[in-house]
Write a structure and sequence with these properties.
It is built from 4 helices and no strands.
Length: 108
């Protein structure tokens, strides 16, 4: 089944794989900005006090994690549903091939 539709499977792999990678990176991008309050606090105070930066960093992290988990779940559900629908379409396409019935020479 897959060998007959290898091009379709590869196209879907590229679309869903690269699309999922890009969207996953966009979802994880705010995790890069979470340490910025700590770094800014260290630069401004000269390393004297890091408590404000740590508290703000922890609050940002705790606020972002549920959103990231939700968006990651939505992305995963979309990708898995797309693969399921692709599989169903490829199976349907192969089952609907016409069968030619020929008359046998001894029957009339």
């Amino acid at each position: 089944m897959i060998t007959r539709n290898l091009v379709s499977v590869l196209v879907m792999f590229l679309i869903l794989g690269l699309g999922g990678l890009i969207v996953g990176l966009l979802i994880a991008l705010p995790l890069v900005t979470i340490p910025l309050p700590l770094v800014a606090n260290l630069v401004i105070t000269g390393g004297q006090s890091i408590t404000a930066g740590l508290i703000l960093r922890a609050l940002l992290f705790l606020a972002f994690i549920p959103l990231a988990i939700f968006l990651g779940g939505v992305l995963r559900a979309y990708i898995l549903a797309s693969w399921t629908l692709t599989y169903r379409r490829l199976i349907l396409a192969s089952e609907l091939t016409p069968t030619v019935l020929t008359d046998l020479p001894g029957e009339a």
